[in-house]
Amino acid sequence: MARPKSYHILLSDDELKKLKSIIRKNGTSKTLRSRCQVLIDLDESHGKVLTHEQSARSNGICKATVTNIVKLYHTGGIDAVITIKRSINSDNARRKLDGRGEAKLIEIACSPAPEGHSRWTLRLLEEEAKIVLDTPVGKNAIGRALKKTGFSLTGTNTGVSPKKGMQNS
Q: For the chain, how big is the Rg over CA atoms in Å?
């Protein structure tokens, strides 16, 4: 025998319209789309109500996720469900260099090394980046950006891209 429901979802007409409009938008992420669909599936005031297991199966998620979405709705309302909180440790939150910054950095690394040095080092690039770029960038971020583009500080850039294995033009 199944346990009785501890949380009941009763959406107002405005909330239902809001959820359906979010689902219809092209730029909506899969996570947000499935959260909205779960609430619509479990809504007791409009149409047929699915069980947690049926909703999970139809949306391609696990039952625990459905339970978490329901708890999130009851603790924070519909706004808590439709906002996705990013972890401060995620890659996008920690990213120091954008595309323009990386381009400037590569431009600096391709220029002749400072006087008294045979080549650029990560420390030298870090000092130069402080001057050229507005935000200070650490040597680790500089190293990641150069590695991502296939740039080598050893001066042995052969023009071969590590990802494609082809000559760059």
A: 25
What interhelical angle do 63-82 and 30-42 show, nearest 10?
Answer: 100
Cβ atoms 142, 122 nearer than 8 A: yes
Domain residue spans of the chain: 13-82, 93-149
Q: Are 167 and 160 in contact (CB under 8 A)?
A: yes
Identity of the residue numbered 52: H
- Give percent helix, percent strand, percent coil of the chain, each to the nearest 5: 55, 0, 45
Q: Do residues 160 and 166 touch, judged by C-beta distance below 8 A?
A: yes
In this predicted structure, the answer to whether residue 114 has a pLDDT above a threshold of 50 is yes
Q: What is the value of pTM for the model shown? A: 0.54
Confidence class for position 98, pLDDT limits 50, 70, 90 = confident
Average pLDDT over residues 38-62: 91
Query: Rounded CA gap, 101 and 133, in Å?
Result: 7
Least confident of 3-12, 14-23, 77-86: 3-12
Please name the amino acid found at residue 76.
Answer: G
